[in-house]
Each structure stands twice: as structure tokens, then as C-alpha cells.
Amino acid sequence: MKIKEVQDKAEELLKPIPHLPASARKWIAENIWWITIVGVVGVAYSVLISLVALAGISLFTSSFGIYSIYAHSGFWYFSTLVMLAASVIELILMATAISPLKAMHKKGWEMLFLVLLVNAAAGVLNILLSFSFGFLFSLIGLAIGVAIGAYLLFEIRSHFNLISAVGKKLKK
Q1: Pairwise CA distance, residues 123 & 121, whole Å
Q2: Are 106 and 165 in contact (CB under 8 A)?
Q3: What are 124-138's pLDDT values in tens digits?
Q4: Which of 69, 118, 123, 163 is least surrounded by CB atoms within 10 angstroms?
Q5: What angle do CA 93, 99, 105 make, to 5 degrees?
Q6: What is each CA distance from 110 to 89, 103, 137, in whole angstroms?
Q7: CB of 44 within 8 A of CB of 98?
Q8: CA distances from 130 to 10, 56, 75, 101, 116 (A)
Q9: Distance from C-alpha of 23 to C-alpha of 43, rounded to nearest angstrom
Q10: What pLDDT score does 79 carry?
Q11: Alpha carbons within 13 A on the beta-carbon side of 110
Q12: Distance CA 118, CA 88 (A)
């Protein structure tokens, strides 16, 4: 399935849901670039903390001769690496989306949509790898988060569809 098909399907699912006021949609569309900068800072911080935590755990267990199947070869370690890789991908996509978002180019919106898809896929994979008793609650929380993100993203989509890659308004 192509990204465009996924976008169209998501837009179709969100169509019957009440929309934000036009002024709110316009404000979000015009300011999403600096909101994305805040997101980049947050994701960069979480990547840094994850790297420090992984290094700390590896140093602690190896320096004391502790070999923990759970920490080194278990699902927790792999799950953390998967989430770290997803966070780095999201960080790159978000950082490269800032300039097109500021210019109101469609490319910026599409990159944020890819961030949403990467986040959803990584979340599902993380839930499957964690094998916790909170599986259902984690899945519900992820679904709610992705739904809210998709709703807000599709509320501003039309502001980016009207502008081509060269910044000229297109006629409908």
C-alpha cells in the first residue's frame, strides 16, 4: 500500500469527525514548524537519555561480572534498541520537516505524516516485544495517541495542499 493511499484512507476515516474552528486550524498550520522544533528537542533529549541508560546498564552489568539474560539478550534490551532506532528516524524526519513546514510546503506535512506512521509502527512493535500484562492498556493508549495525532495532522492538511513545492498557490 502506498503512502498516498494510507493518507486518503485516514482522511476518509476522519472525515465524519467534527472539525476544529477554521482559525484554530490556520493557527496550527502556521505554527506547526516551531511546535516541531519543540518536538525535535524533546526527541533528541530522549535519545540522549536512552543512550546513557543503555551504556550505563551495559557498564554496570559487565563491570560486576553480572550476566543478565533479561538485560543483555532479552526482549527489554531489544525493545529499547528498536525504540531508540525509531526515535532517531523520527528525529531526522522532524528536523528535515521544519523548513518545509515554515514555508507551508506539502513536503513538510508529508514528513510529519511519516513520523506518525513510524511512531505507530514502533509503538506496536514495542508493545509486542514487551510482553507485559498491560498489553491491552498500552495498545489502547497508543491507538488514542495516534488517533489524536492523525486528527490534528489532517485538520491542517488542506493548508499544505494549496501550496506547491515552489510556494505558489494552486487553483482547485
Answers
A1: 5
A2: yes
A3: 988 888 777 788 898
A4: 69
A5: 95
A6: 15, 13, 29
A7: no
A8: 28, 21, 6, 35, 21
A9: 29
A10: 77
A11: 14
A12: 11
Query: Which amino acid is residue 140, in one-letter code?
Result: I
Residues 100/67, Cβ–Cβ less than 8 Å: no
Chain CA centroid to CA 80, Å = 16
What residues have CB less than 8 Å from 124, skipping those under 6 apart?
A: 139, 142
| Grid cell in block for residue 7 | 493518507
Q: Each residue of 101-151: pLDDT tens digit? A: 999 999 999 999 999 999 999 999 888 887 777 888 989 999 999 999 999
Residue 67: C-alpha distances to residues 60, 73, 167 (Å): 10, 10, 57
CA 122 to CA 48: how far, in whole Å?
Answer: 18
Q: Are 153 and 20 in contact (CB under 8 A)?
A: no
